[in-house]
Design goal:
heterodimer, A: 320 residues, 2 domains, seven-stranded mixed β-sheet, flat, B: 316 residues, alpha+beta, 11 strands
Chain lengths: 320, 316
């Protein structure tokens, strides 16, 4: 892939781009035209995750939710994974982590859960996300309580240079955004390897977004992160409303990364539950397990019963 | 007046009437200017000093579809259009690649404004009731406190299109905008086959002036939305544009003339060759407007009286 930096704002231009996505500067002819290629991928019929087409893996179902996969062809230029982080947690360690997690939470879980959640269905897979760096001159204006008179609010404005580094935007359809956010901190972004070892049965999720949509997602994420930082670091005082800002972006660089994870997906009474373990840190486990309301009722019942008993005994002692 | 098809090798013709300079495909040559239908077009040598287009938005509307679309448009001009307009004949319909500058810059503004911050007070007031007693009431009153705010705003501004065509003025181009710039392609002379393309004939400086004007207006809108507070007034700003960029782009526009009535009145009709949007200044028939107003003046009271009359009969 031929790439170059935009001569005006320093943002990475990609093959086939006619204009810089950030500042609109026309690109030179040498940033080649791309030919349209047909790609095939495996689409999950349940959660609609797009997985790389590996015929050996198609039979095992989707790693995120266990539903069957279907072959899909596309000629749209899709985003492609450029960097893959390796698994540093092996299958045995992942299983131990899962076991520990299951026994940690077991009390309120239904008793037959362990039987349902077969440890051998723990599968290795890579989920995908964008990771971007950028410089931005942020012009902002907002109301805060600082300097207010009669009204509770007073206007403020300012300009500040901000550097965004390694901001992660999940592109995974399999994992929820919350899962991706919690897992994100456990990865070493510098551990990229050329050809990572592929554990048995590993699936790789693909970016399922066209380039323009991807850029919109990255920029809206940048706005979200920027708004939070302005609110915390720049707007004086503790209350803030009407925060408006404009980022003058330069040197936006986006990496498309595949992140390793061990995933256990199972159904309990027809509801999907999932435990995800970071492929680079076995201590980072995120999961949801069914909750047994029967057990909760039992506990509440016991507690109330106990209290009543205690009250009775107390009353008896008092009156006797 | 039939269109003469002539054989020109030089590819370039100039209209003496409106000044448009056109590049014409080898097999589609016309002796009539597509903009003004003038026949005084002069063949000329192509010059190389004019800027080469960087981009092109290809035509997606073919002649047949355009004809159909325009026929429907002509027939659908509402009740105030002259009656003869519905029967207007479409003439000289041509697809032209119109040159325009695609402008972008960093827009910077030093602004100042009065920001209104609201607050409320509970106030008491008295009234006198029917027996002459004084009664106390309370009410919540909203006041606005005006605070001054100064600041600087900087942001990328892009996607401004200004006409570089003598034949299609910037206001006319604006009327057929927007173009979907996702449909932008790198300029390739082969895409011109079968179409007429105009050379940029307005000088770049004039176009940049137009572009900055449009950018200034948009910047003003952005600043108005940027102001905090519950309201604002006296927003003033100085706009400066730096890191400017401009690329020549060819835009697809169908141009034709609708001729109607016994006096052969003409209306220029434009169709956005990418989106199919039609624009044309259809004259209003004052006669019809007058009739409508008279109708309202007479009809509404009549209707009112009728309704009252019916109600009166029903309830009596």
């Amino acid at each position: 892939m031929t790439t170059a930096d935009c001569t005006r704002c320093g943002t990475l231009i990609e093959a086939g781009d006619l204009r810089c996505a950030i500042c609109g500067e026309p690109t030179s002819l040498t940033v080649g035209e791309v030919e349209v290629e047909e790609t095939t991928l495996l689409r999950c019929t349940g959660c609609s995750a797009a997985l790389s087409n590996d015929p050996d893996q198609a039979g095992g179902g989707c790693g995120f939710c266990g539903e069957p996969l279907e072959l899909e062809r596309s000629t749209d230029p899709l985003e492609v994974v450029e960097e893959t982080l390796p698994f540093t947690v092996d299958a045995a360690t992942a299983k131990r982590a899962l076991q520990a997690w299951l026994s940690d939470q077991s009390f309120f879980q239904p008793s037959d859960l362990k039987a349902m959640a077969r440890l051998d269905s723990l599968r290795p897979l890579w989920w995908v996300a964008w990771c971007f760096d950028a410089d931005a001159l942020m012009s902002w204006a907002a109301d805060s309580e600082v300097g207010s008179n009669q009204s509770a609010w007073a206007p403020h404005s300012g300009q500040v240079e901000m550097r965004f580094e390694n901001v992660l935007v999940s592109a995974s359809r399999g994992l929820s955004d919350a899962e991706a956010t919690e897992l994100a901190v456990s990865y070493d972004l510098n551990s990229v390897v050329e050809s990572p070892e592929v554990p048995d049965g590993a699936l790789r999720e693909e970016f399922d977004v066209q380039r323009s949509a991807a850029r919109a997602r990255v920029q809206s994420s940048l706005r979200r992160v920027g708004a939070t930082r302005l609110d915390l670091e720049e707007v004086p005082g503790s209350n803030c409303r009407n925060l408006h800002f404009e980022p003058l972006l330069r040197s936006l660089e986006t990496r498309r990364i595949a992140f390793p994870a061990w995933v256990l997906a199972y159904r309990y009474r027809k509801v999907l539950y999932r435990v995800v373990i970071s492929g680079q840190d076995a201590k980072c486990v995120r999961g949801k397990a069914p909750f047994s309301y029967a057990k909760l009722l039992l506990v509440i019942g016991l507690a109330v019963g106990g209290l009543m008993l205690f009250g009775l005994v107390f009353a008896a002692l008092y009156f006797v | 007046m039939a269109t003469q098809e002539i054989e020109v090798q030089g590819h370039e013709i100039r209209c003496d009437e409106c000044g448009a300079i056109l590049v014409v495909g080898e097999h589609l040559l016309t002796a009539r200017c597509p903009y003004c239908a003038s026949t005084s077009v002069v063949e000329r040598e192509s010059t190389t000093d004019r800027p080469r287009p960087t981009f092109i938005v290809p035509f997606t509307w073919s002649a047949d579809r355009v004809h159909e679309r325009l026929k429907r448009w002509i027939g659908n001009r509402g009740m105030f259009a002259p009656a003869a307009f519905k029967e207007a004949a479409l003439e000289g319909l041509r697809g032209v690649y119109v040159p325009a500058w695609l402008y972008g810059a960093v827009g910077a503004a030093d602004y100042s404004a009065s920001i209104g911050e609201n607050y409320t007070r509970v106030e008491t007031y008295t009234t006198t009731d029917s027996k002459g007693n004084t009664v106390m009431h309370t009410r919540v009153v909203t006041y606005t406190e005006w605070r001054s705010l100064n600041g600087r705003y900087e942001g990328w501004m892009m996607d401004f299109l200004v006409s570089a065509s003598e034949g299609l003025k910037n206001e006319e181009l604006q009327s057929v905008e927007p173009f979907d710039l996702r449909g932008l392609r790198r300029y390739d002379p082969r895409l011109l086959a079968g179409w007429i393309a105009e050379e940029s004939s307005v000088d770049r400086g004039t176009c940049m002036g137009d572009a900055r004007g449009e950018a200034r207006d948009r910047l003003g809108g952005k600043l108005a939305a940027f102001m905090p507070g519950d309201s604002h007034r006296n927003l003033r700003y100085t706009a400066e544009f730096s890191e400017e960029t401009a690329a020549l782009v060819l835009l697809p526009v169908w141009i034709g003339t609708a001729r109607y009535g016994s006096k052969e009145k003409q209306v220029r009709v434009l169709l956005n060759g990418q989106t199919g949007e039609v624009v044309g200044r259809v004259p209003k028939s004052w006669w019809r407007i007058l009739l409508f107003v008279l109708g309202l003046l007479v009809g509404v009271p009549l209707l009112f009286m009728g309704v009252v009359g019916v109600l009166g009969v029903v309830f009596s």
